[in-house]
Design a protein that fits this description.
CATH superfamily of the largest domain: Spore Coat Polysaccharide Biosynthesis Protein SpsA, Chain A
CATH class of the largest domain: Alpha Beta
CATH topology of the largest domain: Spore Coat Polysaccharide Biosynthesis Protein SpsA, Chain A
Distance between the termini: 57 Å
């Protein structure tokens, strides 16, 4: 069973698309995973007449390659393994040596392995050698910035705005660069290539743009050079007047930037807190409580309505943030609430040797039974293991997630538990979901004497000791 989907964008090529469809038949690819994206009802009628109605067709109501590719990117759910194909692929070839090659034996196995390698390395995009010329190919898979032509490529779907095609020409260059910037690398299989006809004037972008093609190639090439001077070399002009660019191929992979997600309410207090933040962050906006979370809560008899709402909302939004991280396969990230400040000196040490375990970045050490402050915890610099027999950590305002799979037990706990009686930090603590903490704390928590938790003030929390926690 295939674990990926295939998307084929096409325009005015109801006959030419048979090349790609016949190639997929050769590889015994199930039609159920194939979707052909067309622009209007008129095109649909032509394609069904030529190729039958057993394929899935989707009308995009778009105008041009870039907008259609963006439609496709948002059509599939986040996390989908998507293989993109042009409509006129004749053959997929594998290099034998500098003079010869052969037909790729198993397309499904190759695609599955490509996505598996991406996940193992934390990448989201892969491609193949763009030119059918064995002399320049190599039996290697690279991770640096190289062009992955979008007539045969794969990516794990994300709906991030910065990951876009958004150009009528050379949108695949834009897509490659943005993935490289965001993820620190992409895979290119330099021993695999395709047989196709580039710049085919029958249908597709060439026919659509006509005489404007050359001028547009110039405009887009200069735009990419200006926008990405560190990644795009000087544009050059072919004899036929076509403008081309080359990507700068640094030998060393750029380090992937750790992402920081800040949970914050869309309120005046939330806005004031975000303005005090001393680091780059991605705002995870708090939203109303999920119904299934509300139904799980069993509150103490003396807890007022406002506090009940706050506890449920906090738990719900932590769950939604954790689920986002897991579903979108986001590795190497910090999750925190908006009253945290990063201690830059500790942070600089932390990022140079980031731990491989899920861990707290601040909180309050307490005794196991009576929730009293506990001060005799291990204070060795770096990663430490929590001794749950003598202490626990509550008020977990910030955690580090090295791998998205690390948080699966927490999600399962929230989804499967029958009752929730207190905050999510207590739930995580009670079930010992996080077994490590980093010392000194990377974060300093300070609510500035203002609470969004219905009057519960914690004051300053630093190095796992709470000023007002007694």
């Amino acid at each position: 069973m295939s674990l990926f989907k295939i998307a084929i964008p096409s325009w005015k090529r109801p006959k030419q698309i048979k090349k790609t469809l016949d190639l997929l038949k050769y590889y015994n690819i199930d039609k159920k995973i194939i979707t052909i994206f067309l622009e209007d009802e008129e095109q649909l009628e032509l394609y069904q007449k030529e190729n039958g109605s057993s394929y899935k067709y989707v009308i995009t109501n778009t105008n041009g390659w870039g907008t259609k590719m963006e439609f496709i990117r948002h059509y599939y759910p986040v996390g989908t393994h998507l293989l993109g194909l042009d409509d006129d692929i004749e053959q997929i070839k594998e290099m034998i040596d500098k003079k010869t090659g052969k037909q790729l034996e198993n397309l499904e196995s190759f695609v599955k392995n490509a996505f598996k390698m991406c996940e193992e390395k934390g990448f989201y995009m892969w491609g193949v050698y763009p030119v059918d010329n064995y002399f320049f190919m190599k039996k290697e898979t690279t991770e640096d910035l190289k062009f992955c032509v979008c007539c045969f490529f794969g990516y794990i779907v994300r709906h991030d705005d910065e990951l876009n095609f958004n150009l009528e020409l050379k949108g695949d260059y834009n897509f490659c660069i943005n993935h490289f910037i965001k993820d620190g690398g992409l895979l290119r299989f330099n021993n695999i290539t395709i047989k196709t006809k580039y710049f085919n004037k029958n249908g597709g972008t060439c026919e659509r743009m006509g005489e404007k093609y050359i001028e547009t190639s110039k405009k887009v090439s200069l735009h990419l050079k200006e926008k990405y001077p560190n990644y795009v070399g000087k544009p050059r002009v072919r004899k036929n007047g076509m403008w081309e660019i080359r990507l700068k191929r640094g030998k060393k992979k750029i380090n992937k930037k750790m992402r920081t997600f800040l949970m914050s309410m869309d309120t005046e207090i939330g806005k004031e807190r975000r303005e005090l933040i001393n680091y780059d962050f991605e705002w995870f906006k708090c939203e109303p409580t999920l119904e299934f979370i509300h139904n799980k809560f069993s509150h103490f008899w003396n807890r007022g309505i406002k506090k009940k709402t706050t506890f449920e909302n906090c738990c719900s939004n932590w769950y939604k943030l954790l689920k986002k991280i897991y579903d979108e396969k986001i590795d190497d990230c910090i999750l925190m609430e908006d009253d945290n400040i990063i201690k830059k000196d500790i942070y600089d040490i932390f990022i140079k040797d980031k731990p491989k375990q899920l861990c707290y970045l601040n909180g309050v050490f307490i005794t196991p039974r009576y929730f009293k402050p506990y001060y005799d915890f291990d204070k060795q610099k770096g990663l430490n293991e929590i001794n749950y027999e003598t202490s626990k950590i509550c008020c977990s305002y910030g955690i580090y997630v090295p791998k998205h799979t690390d948080i699966k037990p927490i999600l399962t706990l929230i989804e499967e538990c029958k009752l929730i009686k207190s905050g999510i930090d207590i739930l995580i603590m009670k079930h010992k979901c996080i077994k490590h903490y980093y010392y000194p704390s990377v974060l300093l928590n300070d609510d500035k004497g203002v609470s969004q938790n219905q009057g519960i003030l914690r004051g300053v929390i630093d190095n796992y000791i709470g000023q007002n926690y007694n």
